[in-house]
Design a protein that fits this description.
The complex is a heterodimer.
Chain A (H helix, E strand, L loop, with lengths): L8 H10 L2 H21 L2 H44 L1 H29 L11 E10 L2 E5 L6 H8 L3 E16 L2 E10 L3 H4 L4 E3 L11 E5 H7 L9 E4 L3 E9 L12 E4 L1 H5 L13 E6 L5 H8 L2 H5 L6 E6 H4 L9 H29 L1 H13 L4 H38 L9 H27 L3 H6 L6 H37 L9 E5 L2 H15 L4 E7 L8 E3 L4 E3 L11 E6 L3 H5 L3 E4 L9 H4 E5 H6 L9 E4 L2 E9 L14 E5 L5 E6 L4 H15 L8 E2 H8 L1 H35 L1 H9 L4 H35 L10 H28 L2 H5 L3
Parallel strand pairs in A: 4-9, 6-8, 16-21, 18-20
Antiparallel strand pairs in A: 1-2, 1-10, 1-11, 3-4, 3-7, 3-10, 5-8, 6-9, 7-8, 12-22, 12-23, 13-22, 14-16, 15-19, 17-20, 18-21, 19-20
Helix pairs in contact in A: 2-3, 3-4, 3-14, 4-12, 4-14, 4-24, 12-15, 12-17, 12-24, 13-15, 14-15, 17-24, 17-26, 17-27, 24-27, 26-27
Chain B lengths: L5 H12 L6 H12 L5 H14 L2 E5 L12 E5 L1 H18 L8 H7 L1
Antiparallel strand pairs in B: 1-2
Classes of the chains: A alpha+beta, B mainly alpha.
Amino acid sequence: MKDKPTSPRLAWWLFRKFIPLNERRYLQQAMLEVFEDLYTRKSKKAAWFWFWGQFLRSLPALLSNSLYWSGQMFKNYMRITFRNLKKHKFYSFINITGLAIGIACCLIIFLWVQNELGYDRFHKNAGELYRIVQESPQGGKVFHITVTPSALGPLLKERYPEIVHFARHTLTRLDMGREEIHFRESVALVDGSFLQMFSFPLLEGTPQAALEDPYSIVISEEMKEKYFAGEDPLGKTLRVSENVDLNVTGVMEDIPKDSHLQFDCLVPFKLLGESGFDMNDWGNNNWWTYIQLTEGASYQEVEAKISGIIQEHVPKSSSVLHLQPVVRIHLYALDGGGLITYIYIFSGMAIFILLIACINYMNLSTARSANRAREVGIRQVVGANRIQLIKQFMGESVYYAFFALIIGLTILHLLLPTFSQLAGRPLSMDYSISMILVLIGLTLFTGILAGVYPAFVLSSFQAIGALKGALKSKGGRVLFRRILVVTQFSLSIFLIIGTLFVFRQINFMLNRELGYNKENIVCVPMRGQLYRNYQVFKSRLLENPSIISMARANTTPDIKQSSIADYGITWDGREEGDNFSGINIMGVDADYLKTLQIEMAEGRFFSEQIQTDSTDSWVINEAAAEAMGLKSPLGIGVYWDEYKGKIIGVIKDFHFSSLHEEIEPLLMRMNWGVDNILVRIRSDNIPATIGFMQKTLKDLFPHSAFEYEFLDARIENLYRTEQRMEKILTFSTIIAIFISCLGLLGLASFTAEQRTKEIGIRKVLGSTVAGVVFLLSKEFIKWVLLANLIAWPVAYLAVHNWLENFAFRTRIGWEIFLLSGCLALVISLLTVCYQSVKAALANPIDSLRYE
Amino acid sequence: MVILTKQEELFMLTIFRLQEPAYLVNIRNYLFEQTRKDWAFGSLYITLDKLRKKGFVETYTGKPKHTQGGKAIQYYRLTEKGLRMLAEAKRIHDVMWKGFSFPLSKKISANER
């Protein structure tokens, strides 16, 4: 037998894949016989050729046959699944509801993440657009600023061929008017190439020419409707700030919501030049500079080339230039973190919730596996192998996931409007191909995740034991189930703790003493004629007894606006190489202290009566006195550019930016760039007071629109992200707890069901209802307590990490941990209670009568 | 009323006519000799399996032969039911084919007219 004929192995392998064993055996034999005959009579080649021909021609018949039988089995599996679903409505309800909510949550969060990640991607050259940012180390910390000198853009374009376009950009709010129509609009001053870089489509006008003339303006569709309803706006004029006329040269579509650039109209940067502004200045940091690189240019290389440019012109500066991709602006904060953190947190949460729902399914299916044992036994006896059983049960969980998907989509559509509001984004569900693929993927993932463990457990039954009904829960499985429940509850407790801390931190921030009284303060921006006629306006308003006092400042006290770098300032007795790291500067008027109700620590505040106060006096805060190392600051001379003077007073520290930050040193100058009015009013009858203010303004300056905001609302706005997060967290936590409880309810009723007889005997022997309830509940209590122990340290770390974001943070108190634990315990007890009490109250005659 | 397909009829007749115990290889060989068609083992097997399930054909395993590498062969034989089906098929066949010839004989053509 030296040349034993060998048949093609590949063909056999395929055979084995497609055709069940019992059919294969004889077929194989017969084919081999002919093959060997051919092999010996003719040649190896002929035999191989014949064999493959036979194989390929046999396939259709064999395949259609085996498909037919798979179809039969599939029908059978479906039928069994449906029967089980109907027979055990309660458990099916728990499983499907849990999975449906889990899927709905995942989808909602997926939609939100997709929306956030899609920010600024609608620009045709989104990948080549960058914003130039500055990074400067000061006093051991690194500060990032997004604004740059106005001379930077033109220089870059001139020097580096990789940079195709640059556009400087700044935002301001200006009064606009045409005939009798007056509004305040947000105006973007940009270079001409702006419209070529960014894809803000023009309905009228061309991107190249629209911003050529310095006295041109491109307006949004919305503005067109406001000022030129029904007319053709091209060539017509709009009056800006009551003294400049601009020609409308283009109309653009309204700016999409998912753009970080938001404005109502565009005005050429050149207009500033016309008004005598130095457009090539290195001394100011007031402009955002955007550049567009050539396609394929490496941004790291460009970044490396430009990083040191500032020093060439401002030798003292320590700032380094970086490029920030436009598509990252919305997501990534420059000093780390940013929205992307929340995206990770919420995605994690969605996965948590889905996991909890899957755990419900696993627990219930394995706990109740005894019900399916006979079926498995029979299937094994008639020849089902393990793989087939696994497939069956996995398939079953995928069906469940599919039902859940349908219900989940319904939930999604019901919740979407609410959630859009919560997230502050218009979210919508569109059934595109990719979305459907995501849906299918999610269903399969959920089904497989939920079904894989039950499938392995159920398929591992021994036919003999299963048929005899002598099926005992294996210790290992019970343990695994406990681990799953503990995991579930750990996740829920973790979420409760997280939510409570977010809640507490927000409350803490909103209620913290800021060092001034933020209630009942109306902020009115200064504009046009108000600048010159402020005193008239003020005296008119103060005639009304509801208006207590008025002050002006360069900024409202919720955001800091201007700062001086450490090298820009000096004072009497300043030492070389101290670790002073710059100071904030604020312009205020004499009534600022009184209006905001801030207290003095030392000296006095500015006064209208003393002439020199507005020309050579400073007021500093306590933090500044400390940072400057001044023991007795009064009378010390401070020098900043052309501003000089002596310190006349020290005010107590107050928060002039969000509580994310420490109270920084502050220098105050009288009447320096004051363009915000702060009005303190009485708390009674606020609408009438506002109405009075509006009327007074209209009387004095008929062409200006009245715009106002409450200071406390502005302050609340600072913590909008956190508040949004609080809402979403609360929502997710409730859902997580709800699903966990559903699972617990299922398990509890299952346990009660199983122990019916035991309870009957106990009651006959004299056990009390309370005793039985305790017996049934104590196991669950144990699990929840264990879950607490696991969740606490993890939650502590997470909360601690999150609170690091805030300079002023609430204490991590143990009572919240305890409270969360108790909450989880109470909720789970209530869940279990119903079942336990029901079982305990049952008449032992009923439960024992079959014996 | 079950009517055998042509293929089923052919296979069953082959089993009937074979002088030796019928199994896949010799059934295929015989069919090839008579019809000159090279049957695929797969369709052969499936058809025979369907016949078996309908109860017209039954299988039995022979004694392991030395030449087969010691493996048993699955043989086919007709059942009582199968034989009755064949008889029925023959009756229908005879009735249906009676008097047919091509080209048509004058007598029938005349009748039709």
